[in-house]
Amino acid sequence: MKFVDKVFIKVIAGNGGNGCIHFRREKYTPKGGPDGGNGGDGGNVWIQGDENINTLVDYRFKKIFLAGNGESGKSNNSSGRKGKDITIFVPLGTRVIDFDSKNILFDVTIMGQKLLLAKGGWHGLGNTRFKSPTRRVPYKRTLGSIGENKDLILELLLIANVGTLGLPNAGKSTLVNTITKAKPKISSHPFTTIYPTLGVINRIKDKKIIIADIPGLISGSSNGVGLGINFLKHLERCTLLLHLIDINPYDSSNVCNNIQIIINELNNYKKKILLKKHIWTVFTKIDLVSQKKLNKLVKTILQCFPQIKNYYLISSANSFGLEKLCNDISTFFYK
């Protein structure tokens, strides 16, 4: 299934039905009087969260959502039928944004949460409603009002406790693959991960902690280069971020420079909101270097970035360091 996290839609609520002008005409009731019924209300457009959906792909081509119109009133004081409501089901974490003002209208984060997007028009009144002792033959009714219509943006921000970030091939997908049942695509070439993946950490018993794997960042991602800027928003809901760093890059690039690239991108993203989160440093693929070289590399990195006080050394290939990392994540969320 293709991952789609942003769509543009138009919602149109139903119009209210018109009131009816009618007078009762029966054989033995020559003065039957008015009996025109009211119209029915127009149908509403709703949005509802569903945890079984993880993408907005269903709305990539279906753009217009139209609720039913209310029926007009009928004789014999019969009211028109209410227009049919429609409900748009979306993944948890979906924001509803007004297309024109760009204001966030709703944030759907709870299973079953149901919110009104567009209200149907009010019903018109039949002439029965206008009869009185002084107005016994009312030739008056009201028309139903027009339902609301809105242009909206649906934007999905995945709900996860922990998010991974780093350069391509830093080991993010391998980590998520190892500690969850999620199966993100893994390969040696850059940008193997082209859309986010969610998984529940299975090394933490009786506690549900969700981790998100997003595509790798490169220099300029915050300005639209590569894939990163399209998916950095999925880290906004995360409480904890894991900055994964390949301790011995296959392309022989400088590790300190690689770390600075990620820091620069986070610094340039939406008023530094991601930098304000808890960020843990995780050095990956340590099984590929000797202990002596590992110690030297870590020492050099800590000299370049003295702000790094705590760090983790892991190898997803042989599970080294993963138990401690997962236990510390559990403690972080369930103190």
Automatic annotation (TrEMBL):
Domain of life: Bacteria
Lineage of producing organism: Bacteria, Pseudomonadati, Pseudomonadota, Gammaproteobacteria, Enterobacterales
Organism encoding this protein: Buchnera aphidicola
Names of required cofactors: Mg(2+)
UniProt name for this protein: GTPase Obg
Pfam families named among the record's database cross-references: GTP1_OBG, MMR_HSR1
A molecular function (GO) term: magnesium ion binding
This protein's record includes keyword Metal-binding: yes
Keywords: Cytoplasm, GTP-binding, Hydrolase, Magnesium, Metal-binding, Nucleotide-binding
OBG-type G domain location: 160-334
Matches recorded under NCBIfam families: Obg_CgtA (TIGR02729), PRK12299.1 (NF008956)
Keyword presence, Cytoplasm: yes
Enzyme Commission no: 3.6.5.-
Purpose of the protein: An essential GTPase which binds GTP, GDP and possibly (p)ppGpp with moderate affinity, with high nucleotide exchange rates and a fairly low GTP hydrolysis rate. Plays a role in control of the cell cycle, stress response, ribosome biogenesis and in those bacteria that undergo differentiation, in morphogenesis control.
Binding site for GTP: 166-173, 191-195, 213-216, 284-287, 315-317
